[in-house]
Design brief:
homodimer; alpha+beta; 9 helices; 8 strands; DNA-binding
Chain lengths: 189, 189
DNA sequence: AACATCCCTATACATATGTATAGGAATAAT
DNA sequence: ATTATTCCTATACATATGTATAGGGATGTT
């Protein structure tokens, strides 16, 4: 719980009593390796703070093929944010790549607090803004860098992750085939 | 101004008196074809409602090459949103492809109203959320569809735009070379 | 210990797409 | 009207990357 508080304080420090109201809404939850936090096509009702473990977000392309949108590690927020906002089915899934510990919260319960706690709504605004900014920065990197560069960046952003997860997930994160990632790795030796 | 009000009401209808305070902050501005609304590397200080014309947002790749991130048509918000939020240099430029009419507003002036007008902050939250959602939906399409499909979608999303702007901009929007777009178009005849 | 499973690598081949270049249609300029 | 620009298309070629397949570590299972 302290980790979550620290995380939120970095975005916008809400009042102590607001935090008192908010924190009781979070529930401990466990995900086993392979479990889905949200399924593509499902309408999200909650999101969560990832305390421990690794989660992969991915789009699926109809037949087997998937595209890894993001890896989440400890200290991240997971959940179908767009689906929560719109109330429409999520475009992607989120699946635990390892056993995970999360603190999850019902989105409607959170929403119902905004009227009475403007500092919470400010936090929500800043969260949305920050989330937007990081997504856009990521977009820029995808567009401007080739797979070689993005692979090196992946290793910087997620130190140690390469040793934990299968390589074909990394390939799909980079937008290339496993064969191609293998070639890139070979080239870099 | 009425168009802007309608646009905002669709996101979140603020009180009439809040609107009275807000609207005086908007200033009429003209862009001539080729003018930049924001330059890559510049720190944004304002954003705008595009009343008329077409604006292209694009990343540049060091040497000449650019990647078209988005086309804005009448009724859109333009500006370096991430740069406004972070206070850091913009990662992309926005350039008028035609003569444009915009209503621009200073971001700090807007920010200073949030404390006194919670409905305005709610509007800001919802705007950020919506913007996030549409960016994510676009990401999904880029990842899941090939250039052929995205070309057809481009024509649906921006009816008539194809006739107004050079084809190499569309190609760069689709992430392919002009030659390749020409091949795609030929194939579809 | 033997076997099965998972998954990374390597090879060969096919193909999509980029680059370079030229031609020509359309538009703008003098 | 003539010329100059702009820009779309077509061609030929090079190359990066995907697909298909097989082999072999590594790890886990019985």
């Amino acid at each position: 719980m302290t980790e979550l508080k620290k995380f939120l304080d970095l975005i916008y420090p809400i009042h102590e009593n607001t935090w008192g109201i908010l924190k009781v809404l979070f529930k401990d939850e466990r995900l086993k390796k392979g479990d889905f936090f949200i399924h593509e096509g499902e309408i999200a009702t909650r999101f969560a703070f990832l305390q421990d473990g690794v989660v992969r977000a991915f789009y699926t392309n109809g037949e087997g093929k998937d595209y890894t949108k993001h890896f989440f590690t400890a200290g991240s927020i997971i959940g179908g944010y767009s689906s929560l906002i719109t109330g429409k089915p999520s475009l992607f899934s989120q699946q635990a790549l390892t056993n995970c510990k999360v603190l999850s919260i019902n989105y409607n319960q959170l929403l119902s607090l905004y009227d009475a706690y403007p500092d919470l709504e400010r936090l929500a605004r800043k969260f949305a803004e920050n989330y937007f900014v990081s997504n856009e920065a990521k977009e820029a990197k995808i567009v401007l860098n080739n797979a070689d560069v993005r692979y090196l960046e992946f290793r910087n952003i997620y130190p140690g992750l390469e040793q934990i997860i299968p390589q074909y997930h990394i390939a799909s994160y980079l937008g290339v085939s496993p064969t191609q990632l293998s070639r890139i790795r070979k080239k870099m030796t």
